[in-house]
Design goal:
Helix content: 25-40%
CATH superfamily: B-lactam Antibiotic, Isopenicillin N Synthase, Chain
CATH topology: Jelly Rolls
InterPro entries: DIOX_N (IPR026992), IPNS-like_FE2OG_OXY (IPR044861), IPNS-like_sf (IPR027443), Oxoglu/Fe-dep_dioxygenase_dom (IPR005123)
Largest sheet: 8 strands, mixed
Structural class: alpha+beta
Radius of gyration: 20 Å
Order of helices and strands: HEHEHHEEEEHEEEEEEHEEHHHHH
Mean pLDDT: 85
GO molecular function: dioxygenase activity; metal ion binding
Shape: globular
Distance between the termini: 29 Å
Number of domains: 1
Keywords: Iron, Metal-binding, Oxidoreductase
Family: Belongs to the iron/ascorbate-dependent oxidoreductase family.
Organism: Carpinus fangiana
């Protein structure tokens, strides 16, 4: 069945003024490349951006053989390598926050995530001695032993390269969908822009445990390849419901990040999401998220989104009682850090304390002091007559370290 007909029958595109979405829309990237179907694609993309912040992207142009290879190599990494081989490339061995993380070693929303993973990046040389500390995040990868996994590195270097191009193509379509020039976001990217990727294994667990806690992605966009049939990924609408984002063959799941929400003045929705651990007996869940980076020196000033697009967002908010979007300014606009690079580094310091204790003890102490201040501030607010705690979809960190993470 042609994708357009399938979408029409599913009726899964949320209309404007519907932030209480019940399903995740599907778009075909091929439709954006055909002049006859591109206008309808952009309209559907605009609806997804304003109302959902999550979507399935089909017909990406990725070779099926490459997708099969990266999925196989993901399973092989976790299923073939011994603990000793994985720990040889452990994240804490380097100050780049690239490499392998043990089960339960990353923290989201104050709790340990029940997953193990390896973080990879586009290739970059070691920083120079005079570079700022956040340059450390742009460094060579730690690759598994090629004698054990000879096809791992070639597959992922190819995949990261192709996904880098797809992500840049897609962000230009986002610009068009909200009434901007296709190159409107170009100034937020370096010529040798760093992008990142994770391979993640969520082991089965009794009950609905936290695979990764509620969070929003940072930067502009992320693209998730769900590499096993288990469910677990959920997005939260603004009425507080958790909506399943089950695996769909031939698609990537696109999540809008806090950066895009910030620079569009809240027009594009960055949606809170989480991953539940697979239930006992269902087997582990595997995922391969790609995270589009932005320049660490970028200034996240607001874009001049046309008034008619802003009004569509206002109508959607009015329809659910005028509920405000989460406060995203801290990380990208009015934060305490000198640059986006510093804010990103501090976020990594908070999430990976084993790396931070070894390489960034002073920054970790700073993060913990800010967290302690936030706890005191929250306790004070709770004693006020008009105080109300944030919902699960709202950030309470407007004056502390950002909670945007790289997950799925």
């Amino acid at each position: 069945m042609p994708l357009a007909h399938a979408l029409e029958e599913d009726n899964q595109y949320p209309r404007m003024a519907d932030l209480s979405f019940k399903s995740i829309p599907t778009l075909s990237l091929a439709a954006a490349k055909d002049p006859a179907t591109k206008p309808a694609f952009l309209e559907s993309l605009r609806s997804a951006l304003l109302n959902v912040g999550f979507l399935y992207l089909a017909d990406t142009g990725l070779p099926s053989g490459l997708i099969q290879s990266v999925v196989e190599q993901c399973h092989a990494f976790f299923g073939t390598l011994t603990d000793e081989q994985k720990l040889a490339i452990e994240m804490k061995n380097a100050n780049s926050f690239l490499g392998y993380s043990r089960l339960g070693n990353e923290i989201t929303a104050g709790a340990a995530d029940w997953r193990e993973q390896i973080d990879l990046s586009t290739p970059h040389p070691l920083p120079g001695p005079g570079d700022p500390a956040w340059f450390n995040m742009k460094a060579p990868n730690q690759w598994p032993d090629p004698l054990t996994l000879p096809h791992f590195r070639p597959a992922y270097e190819d995949y990261i390269s192709r996904m880098s191009k797809i992500s840049m193509e897609f962000v230009s379509l986002i610009a068009e969908a909200i009434g901007l020039e296709p190159n409107a976001f170009d100034r937020f990217f370096d010529q040798d822009q760093q992008h990142k990727l994770k391979l993640v294994k969520y082991p089965e667990r009794e009950g609905n445990g936290q695979g990764v806690g509620p969070h929003k992605d940072s930067m502009l966009t992320s693209f998730l390849l769900q590499a096993s049939p288990q469910r677990g990924l959920q997005a939260q609408n603004l009425t507080g419901e958790w909506i399943d984002c089950e695996p769909k063959e031939g698609t990537l799941v696109v999540a809008i990040g806090q950066g895009l929400e910030a620079i569009t003045g809240g027009v594009c929705a960055s949606t809170t999401h989480r991953v539940l651990s697979p239930s006992l007996g269902s087997g582990p869940r595997y995922s391969i998220p790609f995270f589009q980076g932005v320049s660490y020196s970028a200034k996240f000033e607001s874009m001049d989104v046309p008034d008619h697009v802003r009004r569509l967002k206002e109508e959607a908010l009015d329809a659910i009682g005028g509920k405000k979007l989460d406060d995203v300014e801290f990380t990208f606009v009015k934060g305490k850090w000198s640059s986006l690079g510093e804010a990103t580094l501090m976020n990594r310091v908070k999430s990976h304390t084993d790396v931070s204790e070894r390489w960034y003890p002073e920054l970790l102490a700073k993060v913990r002091a800010l967290q302690a201040e936030q706890v005191v501030g929250d306790a004070g607010d709770s004693n006020k007559d008009d105080a109300s705690g944030p919902s699960a979809s709202q950030s309470s960190n407007a004056d502390s370290v950002a909670t945007a993470v790289e997950a799925h």
